[in-house]
Structures are given as C-alpha cells and as structure tokens.
C-alpha cells in the first residue's frame, strides 16, 4: 500500500513559503515535493479555499501565505486537504458473517477510532508557527544545511 505523504509535503512547502520573501512558483514547490505542478496546484486549491494561501499569475507571480503562522494548525491543513485517511489499516471483510472476523473488526475499529481521535487532537495542538520555530532552532545548529526551496536536492 502506498503511503500518503500529502500532509507532510504540504507542511514542508508551507514552511518554505513562510521563509521566502517572494512568491513560490508551482514548479518550484512541485519540485520540492517531487511531484507534478498540476498535483501541487490541486493540493494548494484546498488551502487557498480556506484562506491559508493565495496565488497570482504572470511574471513574478506564484504562491504566498495569506495568514499568520500561529493561526493555522496541522489539523486545519489536514482538513483543507480533504481529510485523507490517517490510518491505512483495513479489514479483511467489511461486513463479515464469520463471528471471528466480527470480533477482529470490532477490536480493530475501536483501536483505529481511538488512534485517529488522538492524532487529530495532537494535530490541532501544533501550529505552523510551532514548526517554523523548530526550523529556526535547527538552522542555528546546522547553519550550512540546505534550507531554501531552491536548494532542494533529493537522494532517492
């Protein structure tokens, strides 16, 4: 099963946007996410609809943050992305007749529900400002590490 990294990817580019003094193009953001600019624009549309970012076309255009970093939680970004599945576990059968499968589904269903509630709560406690502060702390320690959007180099 493929891992959904949309939330991590979008948080990554939002932090890059926060430190940039000029708009970031879809192409530059997509390169940082290792995806196609069309995919990036689709993801950013939900953020634009929530007022987190805005975009402008033409020379000098691109994406910019449209809100204060302390006003945006990781949960609100997750919700703007359309609330992709948090847990990738599934059931062998959704509506089993087998009593063993029913017991398994019930136990897993309760555990997954509890885990999702806790994760959403924690995501609601962390803001983009919190991440930006952690990034600045890391920059003080690792001054020469790549940290600008244009410096993205992936080994993979």
Layout of helices and strands:
Blueprint: H1 6-19, H2 26-33, H3 37-49, E1 53-56, E2 62-65, H4 74-80, H5 99-125, H6 128-141
Antiparallel strand pairs: 1-2
Question: In short, what is this structure?
Answer:
With 156 residues, the protein is mainly alpha-helical.
Explained architecture:
This protein is mainly alpha-helical and 156 residues long. It has helices at residues 6-19, 26-33, 37-49, 74-80, 99-125, 128-141, and strands at 53-56, 62-65. It has one domain (6-151): Winged helix-like DNA-binding domain superfamily/Winged helix DNA-binding domain (Arc Repressor Mutant, subunit A, Orthogonal Bundle), CATH 1.10.10. The chain has 6 helices and 2 strands. The protein is elongated, with a radius of gyration of 19 Å. It starts with 5 loop residues before the first helix and ends in a 15-residue tail after the last helix.
From the alpha-carbon coordinates, what is the Rg to the nearest angstrom?
Answer: 19 Å
Q: Let me know the average pLDDT.
A: 87
CATH architect. name: Orthogonal Bundle
Instruction: Please indicate the count of domains.
Output: 1
Report the total helices.
6
Helix/strand class: mainly alpha
Helix % is 40-55%
Main beta sheet strand tally, sense and closure: 2 strands, antiparallel
Order of helices and strands: HHHEEHHH
Strand content: 5-15%
- Which CATH C-level class is it? Mainly Alpha
CATH topology: Arc Repressor Mutant, subunit A
Secondary structure tally: strands:
2
Q: Give the name of the CATH superfamily.
A: Winged helix-like DNA-binding domain superfamily/Winged helix DNA-binding domain
Please tell me what the overall shape is.
Answer: elongated
**Strands of the biggest beta sheet: in what spatial order?**
1-2
